[in-house]
Amino acid sequence: MAIIGLGLLLFALLIGNMQNFLQALGRRKLEMSLRRRDVEQWMSHRRLSEELKRKVRQSERYNWAATRGVNEEMILENLPEDLQREIRRHLFKFVKKVRIFALMDDPILDAICEKLRQKTYIKGSKIFYRGGVIEKMVFIVRGEMESIGEDGIKVPLSRGDVCGEELLTWCLEHSSMNKDVKKIRIPGQRLFCNRMVRCLTNVEAFTLRAADLEEVTSLFARFLRNPHVQGAIRYESPYCRGLAAIRIQVAWRYKKKHLNRSGKASIQSNDSSRH
């Protein structure tokens, strides 16, 4: 009788857990259907074209599949601060794969991780385009991208890669210091992109906005101006490498032009001496 009673109790617990699971699953499906209905009503109200509606539906489906409808920021906000830091370090461990951030101390990395925001992009989305303003850094978590430079060379980007890292260099170089050693944003200056970055597949990523990056660099400006960090930034950043290539080309053309002039002058002097 005891064994039968224990078996019935375990069976009742199993039934209860299954019922709770089915209720949660039904509630999640209801939330998804309500979300889709709201999106459809919004698109109809704004009279979007069929092509835009298709892209919005695709983005919503992928966003729901990536997050499962869970708001990670809301969950983290209810946890203790030390636990939040540990979870963010685990989620954003790919940040240290970038050589620039690998040289930084934990307080700077924690400040950067607090500013990272989850973002999803669908296949064909253009993250950056030539002549556009770079306003964010993008860390790829899942998916594939490609970067196409002005010379047409394609560079593949995948999990663990980052694009828009030249924004960090630009934020450090285009700033001034006041008497209180606080960073001042110089108005009227923007960083423009010289390449195009687009998604080859659906991409899940974390983004760091320019305003948040400026805030972090203003708090840790003294450390970020360390020669080792600056050297790593200039070595890793395609923006700095592009500037270096342009300066080398200009210097080489100037030297070549100077050599041609000196060669012509020597030939003319030889001819005059013969006459």
Automatic annotation (TrEMBL):
Statement: the UniProt record of this protein carries the keyword Glycoprotein: no
Alphabetical list of InterPro entries matching this protein: cNMP-bd_dom, cNMP-bd_dom_sf, RmlC-like_jellyroll
Keywords for the protein's UniProt record, in alphabetical order: Ion channel, Ion transport, Ligand-gated ion channel, Signal, Transport
Gene Ontology CC: one annotated term: membrane
Transmembrane segments: none
Signal peptide region: 1-24
Listed SUPFAM superfamilies: cAMP-binding domain-like
GO biological process: monoatomic ion transmembrane transport
Domain Cyclic nucleotide-binding per the UniProt entry, residue ranges: 100-168
Name of this protein: Cyclic nucleotide-binding domain-containing protein
Species whose genome carries this gene: Liquidambar formosana
